[in-house]
Specification:
This protein is mostly helical. It has 1 helix and no strands. The longest helix is centred in the first third of the chain and has 40 residues. The radius of gyration is 33 Å and the shape is rod-shaped.
Amino acid sequence: MLKFLIVLVLIFFALRMFARLFVVSTFNNLNQKMENEMKKRYPGQSQQEVPEGHISVQQSSKPNSGNSGSAGEYVDYEEVK
């Protein structure tokens, strides 16, 4: 009876160890697949590592004209002396 319990406990620990390895490897594979899919879907948005304290400024391709059209109609005037 004691031999049976010892074998049962050893089998339990062995299954637990293999299950942990299986779960970790499965999640790593799933994470890698999702990362590859995101890189395919959004290729230009990969994060680049920059040193701490580095500041970068990105300018938009279309400059803001300042006249959004919602301020009203522009009226040209002549200065009278």
